[in-house]
Design brief:
41% of the residues lie in helices and 15% in strands. It is an alpha/beta fold. The longest helix is centred in the middle third of the chain and has 30 residues. Bound molecules: thiamine diphosphate and magnesium ion (MG). Magnesium ion binds next to β6.
Length: 690
């Protein structure tokens, strides 16, 4: 296996030429890196990757993450040549190939299984969506953490290696430059993740030209300082060196491994090799011909797969993968006979199902004028849920004492290198890395949550966006949700974060008004299969609303509900609010009532859930004929017009906040019951000419 055979070279050149031809046909894409890194990817897939093309969702498979997502044709070529099968939504392998040659011919065209960058859920065998550089790397760390956790959690005598998959991620200079790779690599080093291998395409080229323009990092030193093992492959075309490097990774049990591969972008292209031109545009027909000549390829053949190539992959990765996969399922069968509950848990986890009775300990909270902070009630609910969902694991970016997201029940433990079964994770001050790691964890199918200050959701946004794009049920918990933060001042007071997250397709944003809404929010969140949730919580106490007097908090599942109404159900004015401002609206309603004005208070914890309700329900909650409307939220008013209408009024933040005690801020920025009542009066005047 050490010496490259002619057939190895033919397979490698097939990956290269398919990539060149696809980019040329699309007249768009990135040929250079697939051409350069084909030998490394080939070596890994053919000789090492424990992956069964017939069953690409087998839980104990090794994962290959193409962090350099622009090199997507490298991955598509591999998925095609190894014959990876398509999988349906029920995780069943279908007979048809995931990437037929036709799809490669239609690279980057509408509905092709080969979109511009690899997309999870769209192309079977793509383990995660990549394209925003650095994300794949951080995601791979999450996968490795989840792998370690599962290995420890499911390990039993005689089944110590039930879960032992490895994560490989291929990255380039761009991934290395992005800050998120630092966050992820630093934590991976600290956690000594032995199941993680990054392959760095050290080609010294990015879009603008040589990396000498921007970067003098000593990457090897950087990773050594993180506590990684660093291996060098001085020539991407040397199969023997590559084999040795992967073997070194497999033999390294006490830390992650970085393999630095020196390569030539656009390898073999006589005029474009080693230039940034080879990075992101088609080579051109003539250059392709000359490159194919260099490879000893038929110059005019397009999308050509020589005889023996499919068979060779079949005898390599195909056969090895199938044997490993079948062996694993046999092992799981024996495991299930001995440990039926654990096997059941493994199954449910893999199918994103919840255990029986997962919600049995969720508390209800008695009415209480003083109440509880959102973070505090959430802490209680989280602990009640987590006790009964063993694979719910998570933590914070160094803010657990503030976000109150620690699992405190017996046995919850802390995840560390020497305690990988612990469920409390410590991400360090690395919000972006944390959010991407949560994605990786969700892809391995533990149920992950992360937490931090809401203001720093901005730091995590790139990865939250991928949670949504990949339809992963990640739980993002953010506390300190508004100017309610008080004395910390405008740097810590979110203003535009709610609006900006509500703008993200597929993301469920929840800002509950009191402890019982928090409990209901968790019930909704835990049942999500394909949507990430952002739970937005207060630092300050919220009165626990008297549910005997007002409507049940279960209305939260509809996104918005009538909390308090006019006695005859015919209000003159609607007061809409989320979170901490709901209680304010209840107060304002009392004031208005004393004046004979009937107001309805609508609690609106989640716009997304509400927008999903039938029109009839939405009209019932927000009757179209009641046009006098006021929204109240300690945040940017952006977007509220769609609920209050063009002539409604939105009380909100139109500037950044300020550093002061909360009471003073509420007065300064107009969040008082008086201000809400006054706005309601003005609305009535405006809409009824009173
Ligand atoms: C976060 C992010 N910023 C910018 C880009 C646009 N972009 C795509 S590839 C690339 C250059 C990457 O260089 P490198 O990783 O060395 O890839 P190579 O050219 O060697 O294939 C850039 C800037 C991106 N995809 N993601
Ligand atoms: Mg590069």
């Amino acid at each position: 296996m050490n010496d490259a055979t002619d057939l190895d070279t033919t397979c490698i050149n097939t990956i290269r030429t398919l990539s060149m031809d696809a980019v040329q046909a699309a007249n768009s894409g990135h040929p250079g890196t697939p051409m350069a890194m084909a030998p490394a990817a080939y070596c890994l897939w053919q000789h090492f990757l424990r992956f069964d093309p017939q069953d690409p969702v087998w839980p104990n498979r090794d994962r290959f993450v193409l962090s350099a997502g622009h090199a997507s044709m490298l991955l598509y070529s591999l998925l095609h040549l190894t014959g990876v099968k398509a999988v349906n939504k029920e995780y069943e392998a279908l007979g048809e190939p995931s990437v037929p040659l036709e799809a490669i011919k239609r690279f980057r065209q509408l509905d092709s299984r080969c979109p511009g960058h690899p997309e999870y859920r769209w192309t079977s065998g793509v383990e995660t969506t990549t394209g925003p550089l650095g994300q794949g790397l951080a995601t791979s760390v999450g996968m490795a953490i989840a792998g370690r956790w599962m290995a420890a959690h499911f390990s039993r005598r005689g089944f110590e290696d039930l879960i032992d998959f490895n994560i490989y991620s291929l990255c380039g200079d761009g991934c290395m430059m992005e800050g998120i790779s630092h966050e992820a690599a630093s934590l991976a080093g600290h956690l000594q993740l032995p199941n993680l291998c990054w392959i760095y395409d050290n080609n010294h080229i990015t879009i603008e030209g040589s990396t000498a323009l921007t970067c003098n990092d000593d990457v090897a030193c950087r990773f050594l300082s993180y506590g990684w093992n660093v291996v060098r492959v001085g020539d991407a075309n040397d199969q023997e060196l590559l084999v040795r490097a992967f073997r070194t990774f497999l033999a390294t049990k006490d830390r992650p491994t970085l393999i630095i591969v020196d390569s030539h972008i656009g390898y073999g292209a006589p005029h474009k090799q080693d230039t940034s031109i080879a990075h992101g545009e088609p080579l051109g027909e003539e250059e392709i011909r000359l490159t194919k000549r260099h490879y000893g390829w038929p110059e005019d053949a397009k999308f050509y797969v020589p005889q023996g190539v499919y068979e060779h992959f079949g005898q390599g990765i195909g056969q090895r993968g199938k044997e490993l996969r079948d062996g694993w399922f046999a092992k799981v069968k024996a495991y299930g006979a001995k440990y039926p509950e654990l096997a059941e848990a493994l199954y449910r986890m893999q199918h994103r199902q919840l255990p029986e009775g997962w919600d049995r300990d969720i508390p209800t909270f008695p009415a209480d004028a003083k109440g509880l902070a959102g973070r505090e009630s959430s802490s209680r609910v989280l602990n009640a849920v987590a006790k009964n969902v063993p694979w719910l694991i998570g933590g914070s970016a160094d803010l657990t004492p503030s976000t109150k997201t620690r699992m405190t029940f017996e046995g919850a433990g802390d995840f560390q290198a020497d305690g990988p079964s612990g469920r409390n994770l410590h991400f360090g001050i690395r919000e972006h890395g944390m959010a991407a790691m949560l994605n990786g964890m969700a892809l391995v199918k533990v149920r992950p949550y992360g937490s931090g200050f809401f203001i720093f959701s901005d730091y995590a946004r790139g990865a939250i966006r991928l949670s949504a794009l990949m339809e992963l049920p990640v739980i993002h918990i953010f506390t300190h949700d508004s100017i309610g933060v008080g004395e910390d001042g405008p740097t810590h007071q979110p203003v535009e974060q709610l609006a900006s997250l509500r703008a993200m397709p597929g993301l469920i944003v929840l800002r509950p008004a009191d402890a019982n809404e928090v409990a209901e929010a968790w019930k909704v969140i835990m049942k999500l299969h394909h949507q990430p949730a952002v739970l937005v919580l207060t630092r300050q106490a919220l009165p626990t609303i008297d549910r005997g007097k007002f409507a049940s908090a279960s209305g939260l599942s509809h996104g918005a509900y009538v909390l308090a109404d006019a006695p005859d159900g015919k209000p003159a004015v609607l007061l809409l609010a989320s979170g901490s401002e709901v209680a304010l609206c209840l107060d304002a309603r009392e004031r208005l009532r004393a004046e004979g004005i009937q107001a309805r208070v609508v609690s609106m914890p989640s716009w997304e859930l509400f927008d999903d309700q039938p029109q009839e329900y939405r009209d019932r909650v927000l009757p179209p004929q009641v046009t006098a409307r006021v929204s109240v939220e300690q945040a940017s008013t952006f977007g509220w017009a769609r609920y209050v209408g063009a002539n409604g009024h939105s009380l909100g933040m139109r500037s950044f906040g300020a550093s002061a005690p909360l009471k003073d801020l509420q007065k300064k920025f107009g969040f008082t019951a008086d201000a809400v009542a006054q706005a309601a009066r003005e609305q009535l005047g405006r809409h009824h000419g009173a």
